[in-house]
Design a protein that fits this description.
This protein is mainly alpha-helical. The protein has 2 domains: about 60 residues; about 35 residues. The protein is built from 7 helices and no strands. The N and C termini lie far apart (about 55 Å). The N terminus and C terminus are likely disordered. This is Transposase. Pfam families: DDE_Tnp_ISL3 (PF01610).
């Protein structure tokens, strides 16, 4: 049997429950106003546990709530940018742009040869 302090178990359970609550806010809110109300209520509820997170979300509240307008995020672009940065770091010292270009093509299309 794994022994964990009770406080840590509560924290893990609380984190999981809070994550599920935020997921439901984004999935079930039908309008921008409803999403804002639900997110504000959640922030008030968890402010003692997630003080810095709540502060950061509050500072970017309007931008975060813009998700409810079109239900899209920049997550895919963030992933692409991170992949490009990783390839650039791995390729430090590439002798020319063509080598970088071929690495990027191989990464994103599975095609890295000039014949494709």
């Amino acid at each position: 049997m794994i022994s964990r302090p009770i406080g840590r178990m509560y924290s893990c359970t609380h984190s999981t429950h809070s994550f599920q609550e935020t997921r439901l806010i984004y999935e079930e809110s039908q309008t921008v106003e409803e999403g804002q109300r639900n997110l504000e209520a959640w922030l008030l509820k968890v402010r003692k546990v997630y003080g810095k997170v709540v502060q950061t979300i509050s500072e970017h509240f309007e931008g975060i709530c813009n998700y409810f307008i079109s239900r899209s995020s920049s997550g895919v672009m963030e992933g692409i940018n991170n992949r490009i940065k990783l390839i650039k770091r791995q390729g430090y010292g590439f002798t020319n742009f063509e080598n970088l270009r071929l690495r990027l093509l191989a990464c994103f299309t599975g095609k890295g040869s000039p014949s494709h």
